[in-house]
């Protein structure tokens, strides 16, 4: 195979399609991440932020944000000829969390985006996936001007289990996002294999 194309004369491979969620707090970069890697024009359900939403949408730290996702973001990326990921970005505000159960149906795993300036905003997403035994990876979105901390300090602040991968990423950068997506697929596969191991004792 060369650059993802089938060799001449070989029948095309039917790709495996996997569903990955992109979650995290309000304004953390979920829509940006989906848009950075999607090979199709991403489906976005963004609405303008209004004065009516000010009492419920905390804009501290993301004052320049003018739109918000109200249902989901959707994108697609072909990682290999035989592997396609469908990306579903979840809405960040608490009032839209009722949609998470539906979006998480059939998901292989999730990327939880975190912002070191508003780390507490991703606690709900971490808790959600832990409670439902959905494997996830935490990607610390490296915003310009945001303080940088050692990975272990962030892990401790989020109280993550040792097995949960945590990496620094840039939601605007295609290669950085691809690395995070490959990481969550590998983690989810290892997680599934561990759960299949017979318990001996």
TrEMBL record:
Domain of life of the source: Bacteria
Pfam families: ATP_bind_1
Coiled coil: none
Keyword Nucleotide-binding in record: yes
Transmembrane segments: none
Keywords linked to the UniProt accession: GTP-binding, Hydrolase, Nucleotide-binding
Membership in a protein family: Belongs to the GPN-loop GTPase family.
PANTHER family registered for this protein in UniProt: ATP/GTP-BINDING PROTEIN-RELATED, GLIDING MOTILITY PROTEIN MGLA
Identification of the protein by name: ATP/GTP-binding protein
């Amino acid at each position: 195979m060369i650059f993802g194309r089938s060799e001449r004369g070989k029948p095309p491979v039917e790709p495996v399609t996997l569903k990955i969620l992109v979650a995290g707090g309000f304004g953390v970069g979920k829509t940006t991440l989906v848009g950075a890697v999607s090979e199709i024009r991403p489906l976005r359900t963004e609405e303008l932020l209004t004065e009516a939403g000010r009492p419920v949408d905390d804009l501290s730290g993301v004052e320049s944000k003018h739109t918000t996702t109200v249902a989901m973001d959707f994108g697609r990326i072909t990682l290999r000829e035989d592997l396609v990921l469908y990306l579903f970005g979840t809405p960040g505000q608490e009032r839209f969390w009722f949609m998470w159960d539906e979006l998480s149906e059939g998901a292989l795993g999730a990327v939880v985006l975190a912002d070191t300036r508003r780390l507490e905003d991703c606690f709900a997403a971490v808790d959600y996936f832990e409670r439902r035994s959905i494997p996830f990876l935490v990607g610390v979105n490296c915003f310009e001007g945001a303080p940088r901390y050692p990975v272990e300090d962030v892990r401790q602040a989020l109280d993550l289990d040792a097995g949960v991968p945590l990496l620094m990423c840039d939601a605007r950068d295609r290669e950085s996002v691809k690395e995070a997506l490959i990481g969550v697929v590998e983690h989810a596969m290892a997680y599934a294999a561990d759960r299949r191991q017979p318990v001996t004792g």
